[in-house]
Amino acid sequence: MTTLLLARHGLTDLTGPVLAGRTPGVHLSEAGRAQAAALAGRVAGVRLDAIVSSPLERCRETAEAVAEGRETDVRIDDRFIECGYGEWTGRPLTELAKEPLWQVVQAHPSAVTFPEGESLAGMQHRAVAAVREWNRTLGSKAVYLVCSHGDVIKAIVADALGLHLDQFQRITADPAALTVIRYAPLRPFVLRVNDMGELRLPEDSEEKDGGENITGSDAAVGGGPGTT
Ligand SMILES: O=C(O)[C@@H](CO)OP(=O)(O)O
């Protein structure tokens, strides 16, 4: 079972008030750098077979903080880049909330294509395809970290939960929070969502699926003795 650690980048000066999107040159703020360093500390005890990042600076800087002191270089995968928000890019959230499309983004995201930009469904498709390919490339024993963006992480989690994209606004991905998904042949197991605590994954933990591990994908009826 391949274990994926999904990390959202740390804070930037734009995070919150402005939809940064793919705007170039948006770096971590001082608070964001502190969050990235703290994230590195929270996963310090976890073996990482690969560290992958969106090409945008705020993710690369977060991923590089995690890579510091490890023998693993950060690898860039464009499929983890922020959703293409098109003409919404760089606009204040308070202004965007008055657009008619805002309500569709809230209630029916699978129908949304941003003006001159990408659809949320297209974003989910390319990000999930990237996860599946990394899972295949790294193999079933691998543990790897991907640093990406809020909507991208939420879309990957929705897929792992078997949720339609229209439910993805129910999921939260805060700056520098970790989400952990273990991909078994028959289903993903979502182990952590939006977690800010220390992560420990014992070396043999991939052998556990919560239950008897009869097929490598079975879920334990009743919940089992624990997954990590
Ligand atoms: O401001 C946000 O919430 C957007 C900006 O693109 O997402 P993220 O910060 O995850 O890149």
TrEMBL record:
Key words, A-Z: Isomerase
Biased composition annotated in UniProt, kind: Basic and acidic residues: 202-211
Gene3D superfamilies the record matches: Phosphoglycerate mutase-like
Any Pfam family the entry gives: His_Phos_1
EC number from the UniProt entry: 5.4.2.12
InterPro entries: His_Pase_superF_clade-1, His_PPase_superfam, PGM_Phosphatase, Phosphomutase_MSMEG4193_put
SMART domains linked: PGAM
Domain of life: Bacteria
GO terms assigned for molecular function: phosphatase activity; phosphoglycerate mutase activity
Annotated stretches, region: Disordered: 202-228
Major enzyme class: isomerase
GO CC terms in record: cytoplasm
Stored PANTHER family: BROAD-SPECIFICITY PHOSPHATASE YOR283W-RELATED, CONSERVED PROTEIN
Name of the protein: Putative phosphoglycerate mutase
